[in-house]
Amino acid sequence: MTKGAGRGRYDRSRTTGERAVETREKLLDAATEVFAARGYTGTRVEDLVDHAAVSRRTLYEHFDSIDAILEEVYERAVRISFSTVLQKLMGVTDPIERVDVGIRAYYEIIRDNAAAARVVFEVYRTAGDAQAAKYELNTTRYASLMFEFLSMAFAAGRLERAPDETSVYALIKGLDAVAIRSLQRKEHASLPDIAPQMSRLIKSAFGARAAEPG
């Protein structure tokens, strides 16, 4: 991208509000890539405005600091990830199948949004204590969702033992650890291929049983 290209230009057919939303999303897209490449401490305002091809003034009209941009990049990534997983699960009623579909959807999101995943896993959670705490809170949200599916599977007689929160949390951390390693090795394109293996690991931890025929 040529530095400064397109600054000050916009589609006059759009309303002021529409242009503001578009510019904000453009800034967040650019910031995601810059943070993923440079990290938190290595990112400067100049890097962001150059990559987004906007002025410093435009950036500060939307965000008052690099910290605020990082916060929104993270929040957007988590919001999109969680809503996408839930959307993939719509219409899936079998609790065991929900585990399979949920894990695959999660890994597909990471595969398709590697820069955002790096920000979530590698940049944001190491930016400070508050960020680390929020990262853990969102990990707990995913663990709670998995705990719900496994509890439903146990109630339906599909698991030999009831899931417990500690074990489920540890297994979710394992899912993330595999994703982080794949990103570091630049092997994230194959993450969905190993989703069935991770599903079996989680289900076997609680003694998954085959569904009754018919």
Task: Give helix % range.
Answer: over 70%
How much beta, percentage-wise? Answer: under 5%
Estimated radius of gyration: 20 Å
The termini sit apart by 57 Å
Which stretches are low in confidence, meaning pLDDT under 50 for 5 or more residues running?
1-8
Query: CATH superfamily of the largest domain, called what?
Result: Tetracycline Repressor, domain 2
As for the CATH topology of the largest domain, it is Tetracycline Repressor, domain 2
The shape is: elongated
Look at the helices and sheets and give the structural class.
Answer: mainly alpha
Number of helices: 9
Main sheet overview: none
Total domains:
2
Roughly what is the average pLDDT, rounded to an integer? 90
Describe what you observe in this structure:
The protein has 214 residues and is an all-alpha fold. The chain has two domains: 49 residues, Arc Repressor Mutant, subunit A (Orthogonal Bundle), CATH 1.10.10; 138 residues, Tetracycline Repressor, domain 2, CATH 1.10.357. It contains nine helices and no strands. The longest helix is centred in the middle third of the chain and has 27 residues. The N and C termini lie far apart (57 Å).
